[in-house]
Structures are given as C-alpha cells and as structure tokens.
Amino acid sequence: MTVLSVGGAMSDTADNWPVLDEQALTERDVPEPVTESRRLDSDALAAELFAAHYGRLAGWCRKLLDDDDTAHEVAMEAFTRLLGKLRKVDDPVGYLYVIAANLVRDHWRKTKREREAFRLTKMSEKLASSDGAYRTDLRTLVESLPERLRVTVLLYYYAGLPLSDVARLTNRPAGTVKSDLFQARSVLRQALDGVR
C-alpha cells in the first residue's frame, strides 16, 4: 500500500494506520477578510482545482477502494472539505490527497468492523441452530464472562477498537488486555466445545 506523505505531515498511530495531519498543510489560522474580488478568485481557483484534479483523485481513490461509487464520494468529500479552507491551505492538491487518504482509511476501518460483526453474527446463528443438548449462542456466552473479560471482548471484537484504545479505555496496560483476550477466548472455546 502506498502512503502519501506531504511535507512530513504524516504520523503513525499505535495500530499502524497512518494518520495524515491536515493542520500541517495549512498556512495560517486567521482568515483574511473576504472581498468580492477574493471571493471570485477563490471560486475560480476552486473550479480550476476541480477540473484539473478531480479525475485523478477519484481514480486514486478507486484503486484504493475498488468501488467506483465510494471513490467518487470520497473525492467529492475531499473537495468539499477543501472549499471550506481553500484560502488557508498552502498546498491545496496535497491537502486534497491528505483528506482523501484519511477518508479511505476511515472507510477501511468501518468495513472491517462490519465484516467482523457479520462473521460473529453468522457464527452466533450457526450455534443457535446447531443440534445438541445445549442451544446457546455466542452472545449469551460473552455475557456470562466475568466483567473484566466481557468488557475487553466487547470493546475489542464487537466495537472493533484497536488494542491500544481498549487498554486506554479500561485503564490497563496493553499486555494485561492481551492476557484478558487470551483468557476470554479460552473460556469461550471451552464453552463452545461443550455445545458441539
């Protein structure tokens, strides 16, 4: 995966998703007074940028997302966000790509959580419909975990939060969170083996 870095404006998060800093691309925080000629200049600049870069930006997003509609939505959202800060941005083209990269990353995270939730739902349905003396589902098993393990499982697997965020939210070290997840999986595995 190619990561766009504009003027050293990229940082790395704990879960290794690059976060591109939009602020690093802005020139000043206080807007200049808007006169009629400056507004016309901004409109002309926005039209020029759109004509020159929309197709390339949408194509770049298309390669990352493998979906035409979502790629166009991301490209349009990037341009919309740029218009609000057009006079403050030092490098408008770089800013567009930073915004688009952040939106693509957010989309990937969202779809990952949705796929995981779908997988867990299918697993739960399979357990509920399985033949056997015990008709139990995954949700019931998770709810029966001790609170410390249950909260960790819900935050990590159901909410889709990265390990570092779970550790921060539960006010425990990452190693302890990993241990809790291991213990919870072990308890759930034993309970599921009893169902089969």
Report what the structure shows.
The protein is mainly alpha-helical. It is 68% helix and 3% strand. It is built from seven helices and two strands, in the order ββααααααα. The protein has helices at 36-65, 68-85, 92-129, 138-143, 147-158, 163-170, 174-195; strands at 10-12, 18-20. Strands 1-2 form a two-stranded antiparallel ribbon. The longest helix has 38 residues, at 92-129. The radius of gyration is 23 Å and the shape is elongated. It starts with 9 loop residues before the first strand and ends with a helix.
Condensed summary:
The chain has 196 residues and is mainly α. It contains seven helices and two strands; from the N terminus they run ββααααααα.
User: How do the strands of the widest beta sheet line up side by side?
Assistant: 1-2
Number of helices: 7
Largest sheet: 2 strands, antiparallel
Radius of gyration: 23 Å
> Overall 3D geometry?
elongated
Please give the number of β-strands: 2
Low-confidence stretches: 1-19, 25-31, 131-135
Based on secondary structure, the structural category is mainly alpha
Instruction: Please bin the fraction of helical residues.
Output: 55-70%
Q: What is the string of helix and strand elements?
A: EEHHHHHHH
Q: Estimate the strand proportion.
A: under 5%
State mean pLDDT (0 to 100 scale).
Answer: 76
Question: What's the N-to-C terminus distance?
Answer: 41 Å
